[in-house]
Every structure is written in C-alpha cells, then in structure tokens.
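Risk register update: the risk of archive-format incompatibility is retired. Evidence:
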Amino acid sequence: MQKTLGVTGGIATGKSTVSKMIRDYGFTVIDADVAARKVVEPGEKAYSLVVEHFGEDILLENGEIDRKKLGQIVFHNEDKRNLLNSIVHPEVRKWMLVRKEEAFGRGERAVFLDIPLLFESNLMWMVDQVIVVYTDEATQIKRLMVRNGLSEEEALARIKAQMPIEEKRKLGDAVIDNRGSLSDTKKQLESLLKRWNLL
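Archived output:
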C-alpha cells in the first residue's frame, strides 16, 4: 500500500534535519520550500502572474524574482500577501503532487511531504499521517537567534507568526522530540518508521 506522510513543525524545530535523516533512509522527501522556489522561476505560470500583479520592479537583472524585495512588499501588507499566496500555493501543491506520483510510479511505497505550514494551510488532505518535529519555544528562540542572527524579540515575532508548536504537537499522528542529541532524534525516527512498517 502506498503511503503519503507529512513532515511539519515550527520554525527552528529541526524539521530539515529530520527530513534529511528520512532521505538518508532512501525515501523521497518533497519539500514545499523547494517547490515554492521552483514554481516562480522564469517561464513558469506563477512567475508570469506574480510579475503581472507586482510589477517588474521586483525582478533582478537576470529576470528572476527578487525574493527579498517581494518579501518586504507582502510582509507588511496582508492583502498583497494573500494575493501572492493565491498565485503561488496552488502551483506548489500541483508541483508536489506531480513529484509524488512520479515516486509512486517508480514503485516507492512511501513518500514524505515536508510542509512547514501543513496545519495553517489546511493541507492535511494531502497526507495520510503527519509527523510533527517538536522542540519547546525556548529552544526555538535560542536556535533562531544563533541560526539567523536575530535578537530575542525578532526570533519571538517569527515564532508567533506561526501556529504554536504545542498546538501542532497535539494535531500530529506522531511527534519527534528534537530537543536532545541528533542520535536521539534518529532513534525516535527509526522506531517510528519501524512502527509504521516502513523499515
């Protein structure tokens, strides 16, 4: 039986680390962030629509979208953010589903979708079960400050912009607690994959 599994978490909870471990076991992991970059490349449908709605000022010299500039426009303007999401999100979902079908076509039994905003975007329909990568908020703040060179206030603002990790933890079918060592995280992942008959 083919299974589609979601991997989600909060900012700086270690979702990418867990996705990499899943890849190391030989599974296909389809990353929503990669998809979001792919669908706005020149020549793609979403690219044309974004340029049409946001103007050519958002382009770099090579014709690609200046993600930083576009980010600044939509970060402070909810209407524009909603407009951008309405263009990009359907294309991201389409791109991910095509890759998933390709993997199943190759005979893979399980495919993982790495979707940071799985719950916020109501995308549970895309997956059979959800793994939540968890750390407490204090750890998130510490990691974000180190990783992105943010102040405590900035780190907290980014965390507060997402659904609280404690809520996500309750919504998941399985939780990987990523507060310990990497080997501890790997042990949890391995026992979960065995429990779900994937290893």
